[in-house]
Amino acid sequence: MYILLDIKKDCSLVIPISNPEKLGGLKTVNFFLVKQEKSLSLIDAGYNTDSHWEALNLALNQNGLVLQDLTEIILTHHHIDHVGLVDRIVDAHPIPVYASPLSIPRLKRDKDFMELRVEFFEKLYYEMGCGETGEKQIAYLKKALLRNKGKAMRAEITAITDNEFLGFTILEVPGHSPDQLAFLDQQRKQLFAGDLLIEHISSNAIVEPDENGSRLPTISQQIDSLNKCAAFHIDSVFPGHGAVIQDPKALIHKRLERIEEKSELILRYIQSGHSTANEIAQVLYKNTYNEQFSLVMSEIIGHLDYLEAKKKVTMKKLQSICHYHVTV
Ligand SMILES: [Zn+2]
């Protein structure tokens, strides 16, 4: 038996937004209760706020359940809006927490990895020609590293290493984050996809280092992850934000097309003489460059890597700065 708790129409559990202005375009933060014969799993765990805690308890109570009925927490990826309540739940009711092995150093804020990550961005922003804005961002990251030192997840995390887990087929779907997993119920044709696919906005591919400090090819990963899901027959995608997706194939097609269009646009900027990632970011994202610097740079760098992989551009370093030119 398998029951998706029907709290709000199609979603098993949609947590109302406590502070929409902070969420920007995300609309809602979704996390899901999935009841099976012998388990009651929580997929993702929202923000660590009182309103999300209350919403979780309300959803349980409205379905004749209590927190103590939860049997485990499963995480799609390590981002702060997906893992917030984990420690609060586990403190009140000790249950296992499962995530990708790649989530663990990030959630545990492993000292070596966190330092390597800051070094990675320091070098990256320098090489991409970001100058003072890049330096400011690094100063912010270094401060955040100190400030968040004690904010590691306390709960023990068990790595999901099997292809099948709790009745779900586990799909690795990196791109938005290196550790992102999607949980597929092949029988019900339902996919819990984290932030892989969101109906009302394109999910960002966010540039990150791997465990050894090498840059991940995030746009290529995003394309592969979307294609991976398109290969399955899926009726509904339960996303991390916004509405349930009822025609995922059409949306995946749209997102893949948009990626190609964006790549072509960036190629045209290079053609017209903008050769560094920073120059392209400044002309393409005039209004958001300062405010959303790291996301804007992620987008441009991801696409430059993608164009380079497709041999449409070549990169040459001039005084340690990466310059891109259209391949002739
Ligand atoms: Zn995310």
UniProtKB/TrEMBL annotation:
Residues 28-241 form the Metallo-beta-lactamase domain. It comes from the Bacteria. Pfam families: Lactamase_B. InterPro entries: Metallo-B-lactamas, RibonucZ/Hydroxyglut_hydro, Sec-metab_biosynth-thioest. This is MBL fold metallo-hydrolase. The lineage of its organism: Bacteria, Bacillati, Bacillota, Bacilli, Bacillales.
